[in-house]
Amino acid sequence: MVLEQFALTGKIALVTGCNTGLGQGMAVGLAQAGCDIIGVNITEPAETRQHIERLGRRFLNIAADLSRYENLQSVADEAAAVFGRIDILVNNAGIIRRQDALAFTEQDWDDVMNVNLKTVFFLSQAVAKQFIKQESGGKIINIASMLSFQGGIRVPSYTASKSGVMGITRLMANEWAKHKVNVNAIAPGYMSTNNTEQLRADAERSSEILERIPAGRWGLPSDLMGPVVFLASAASDYVNGYTVAVDGGWLAR
């Protein structure tokens, strides 16, 4: 039956940045579908742990600074050692810096590009090697953005990084599909999270954004549960290198 293809019972999902917001929503959604979850966070994700353990799923948090390249292989190794395998990677962790392009600093450029793009590639590389070692394939889901498709304003490095995420999603899909590794991405629209707090607090800017969204509301972390479960499941086995917009219709306007 087709619904059985969406089941993730017994699967192990590694989700970065799952202490709040979209990462928490996706981790909980994967747990609802049957996954045990390995989170990677700088701080202890107590609330996420509670949500997942209440579902009867196992949860492990690996405390790691993902901005440091030397930590990435050890994250993959620890996850595989504790649970015996990894089946799904969700590259959610990311940062943003807001400033006019004329005043943007090199530090703000490097910080964002390092976490949002370099880390996504090299953690994916480490986990893909684990998938190949297991000989069972796997699923990699990157978190892109509306700014993978558009330029935006006052976020130069974020726009560059998220455009890059869509590009390397295609690249990795091209190379790793032969190993039964599916690499896809989700591009959230304007979501009610920490990253958009400044925008939502600006009444004029918030109104402008809402006027363009056909759904007429900001997105919620729960809106990503269905898409991430689909891309993590056997239902998407023939989907490779695609970026799915979850935006309330923003890009359709």
Q: Strand count, sense and closure of the main sheet? A: 7 strands, parallel
Strand content: 15-25%
How large is the radius of gyration?
17 Å
Cα distance, first to last residue?
36 Å
**Major sheet strand order:** 3-2-1-4-5-6-7
Low-confidence stretches: none
Order of helices and strands: EHEHEHEHEHEHHHE
At CATH level 2, the architecture is 3-Layer(aba) Sandwich
Mean pLDDT: 97
Kindly state the number of beta strands: 7
Helical segment count: 8
Q: How many domain units?
A: 1
- The quaternary state of the protein chains shown equals single chain
Class of secondary structure makeup: alpha/beta
The geometry reads as: globular
CATH names the topology as Rossmann fold
Summarize this structure briefly:
Helix content is 42%, strand content 15%. 43% of the residues are buried. The chain is α/β, with parallel strands linked by helices.
Structure description:
The chain is an alpha/beta fold and about 250 residues long. It has a single domain (about 1-245), classed as Rossmann fold (3-Layer(aba) Sandwich), CATH 3.40.50. The chain is built from eight helices and seven strands; from the N terminus they run βαβαβαβαβαβαααβ. The protein has helices at about 20-30, 45-55, 70-85, 105-135, 155-175, 195-200, 205-210, 225-230, and strands at about 10-15, 35-40, 60-65, 90, 140-145, 180-190, 245. It has a seven-stranded parallel sheet with strand order 3-2-1-4-5-6-7, with helices on both faces. β5 (about 140-145), α5 (about 155-175) and β6 form a beta-alpha-beta unit. α4 packs parallel to α5 (about 155-175).
